[in-house]
Amino acid sequence: MDEDAVAGRSPRQDLAASAGPYAIAHADLLADDPPRSRPGPGAAVPALGIPALIVGGYAAATLLWPLDAVAPTVLPALVAAPAATAAQPAWPADGAGATAVEGLGATAASSTDPASIASITKLVTALVVLDEQPLGVGEQGPEYAFTAADRRDYRAYLADDQSALDVPVDGVLTQYQLLQGVLIGSANNYADRLVSELWPNDEVYARAANTWLAEHGLDGITVVDPSGIDSDNTADPASVIALGRAAMSNPVVAEIVGQRSVDLPGAGLVENTNALLANPEVVGIKTGSLFGSFNLVAAQDATFDGTTVRAYAVALGQPDDDTRHSATAALLERTLAEVAASPSLSAGTLAGTVTTAWGAAADIVTDADVRVALWNAQAAQATPEIELGDARAAGDAVGELVLTGPLGSATTTLKLASDIPDPDAWWRLSHPLQLWGLAD
């Protein structure tokens, strides 16, 4: 019998009144509750989308981030600059010689012994006179009068087998004209006249001349008279080269010794005793001869790769006039040929290396051959000046290399020998701190 039915009680009322810890759920109660919905597939999207956005953002940031913080590193290389070989001068068969190139190291000489220099002494005379009584280029200086007595003296010089020029009786010669007669015609009487106007005698002059030589570092030269007629006017070959340089550094002397001829009052047309002036590259300077011994010091200019080079040569103690000229010319020719053979720094010479944090590398090399004038073991200096900038492709210009020598410099472009590739995706993804400049 159903007691609930007899008592007229509802099962839900009994459920509420139940004093036990658990309530008994009847089937009809479960049937009365509405069904609950199960989560659909879209409910997982918010949970999965956030990590995907993070990963995507990281990938985009690393793959697209500029490479400013990881710019390539440039390492300049130590470039071995070229050097000239030791000089091999064409020494004369007789006597002694020396040769040099202005600004290119020491003089090469076949002997260190002093020898008579004869009328080369007149270079000292001209320099000492101009030191005592200077002339500017284009100036004539004071005038000196000549009389019949001076002409008689001229004839006496000739009778003594000395080199001399006639004078303008009752006329004048300027200081510049007298210097022309001394240096072009090698006139002993003109040299003596100039010196007599400034010093009381040859002994006083000789002291002044030797003091001047010492003050100018020309200790290897000894002077006893203005003309060079005394065999005790001596110098070693290298010192004659030094004297030649000093003479050519004086603009008035340099102008005169380069003149092939001059028309002088009294003397007429005077031909230069230096026959090498027939070569337009020869710019001076002076002959000398005494007692069958012939001397010549000469200077010659030549141009190599846009640089003017001046070579000097001297031949002392030659047997005749022709030989002194040919011996001196041979010395000049060989010396200038050696300068012309100056070694080059070759195209493709390594000047630096570019490296990157991701392992890529490229060499920096010279674009073309480059050289400077060198002689007698002189070396150049190579200085690479690298500016990589945004250059990354093979052949891109990345600066220049300056090759410097004693007489000037030359330049060639520096270029990349190969491409510098960007980092790949994996390197970017795996090195974020370096990309962003947060780590080295």
From TrEMBL:
Positions annotated as active site in the UniProt record: S119 (acyl-ester intermediate), K122 (proton acceptor), S186
Keywords for the protein's UniProt record, in alphabetical order: Cell shape, Cell wall biogenesis/degradation, Hydrolase, Peptidoglycan synthesis, Signal
Entry annotated with the keyword Signal: yes
Top-level lineage group: Bacteria
One Pfam family, short name: Peptidase_S11
Domain Peptidase S11 D-alanyl-D-alanine carboxypeptidase A N-terminal, chain residue ranges per copy: 111-289
Chain positions recorded as substrate binding sites: K286
InterPro entries: Beta-lactam/transpept-like, Peptidase_S11, Peptidase_S11_N
Molecular function as annotated in GO: serine-type D-Ala-D-Ala carboxypeptidase activity
GO BP: cell wall organization; peptidoglycan biosynthetic process; proteolysis; regulation of cell shape
Entry's family note: Belongs to the peptidase S11 family.
Full protein name: Peptidase S11 D-alanyl-D-alanine carboxypeptidase A N-terminal domain-containing protein
Originating species: Microbacterium imperiale
